[in-house]
TrEMBL record:
It catalyses: (4aS,6R)-4a-hydroxy-L-erythro-5,6,7,8-tetrahydrobiopterin = (6R)-L-erythro-6,7-dihydrobiopterin + H2O. PANTHER family: PTERIN-4-ALPHA-CARBINOLAMINE DEHYDRATASE. It comes from Rhodococcoides kroppenstedtii. This is Putative pterin-4-alpha-carbinolamine dehydratase. It comes from the Bacteria. InterPro entries: PCD_sf, Pterin_deHydtase. One of its GO terms (molecular function) is 4-alpha-hydroxytetrahydrobiopterin dehydratase activity. Keywords: Lyase.
Length: 94
């Protein structure tokens, strides 16, 4: 099972993940897309990556603003799996 990161680990990781911040037991990033459909396309690409990784974000869609919330439910907090998925999401944002 994935290990929970310490508070210090999370701070260190976030300093290298611009746009991401901590929200309790999760990390979040909100992206503003060029249009509603561009946001949906991004969500679709993230969904494919999440399925491949077998690790799934909570996703909030508000017109062009898409918020990704990453937490490892089985561990009850933030793990390397969330950090890896955050980097993948960043790579999918054009
Ligand atoms: C069996 C399967 O690996 C688990 O249910 C996965 C699926 N996706 C998941 N996604 C997230 N965010 N946390 C989990 O603990 C999790 N568990």
């Amino acid at each position: 099972m994935a290990e929970l990161l310490t508070d210090d680990d999370v701070r260190r990781v976030l300093s290298d993940l611009p746009g991401w911040s901590r929200d309790g037991d999760a990390i979040t990033r909100t992206v503003t897309c060029a249009s509603f459909l561009a946001g949906i396309d991004l969500v679709r690409r993230v969904a494919d990556a999440a399925e491949s990784a077998d690790h799934h974000p909570d996703i909030d869609i508000r017109w062009t603003a898409i918020t990704f919330r990453l937490s490892t439910h089985s561990a009850g907090g933030i793990t390397d799996k969330d950090v890896t998925l955050a980097r993948t999401i960043d790579s999918l944002i054009s």
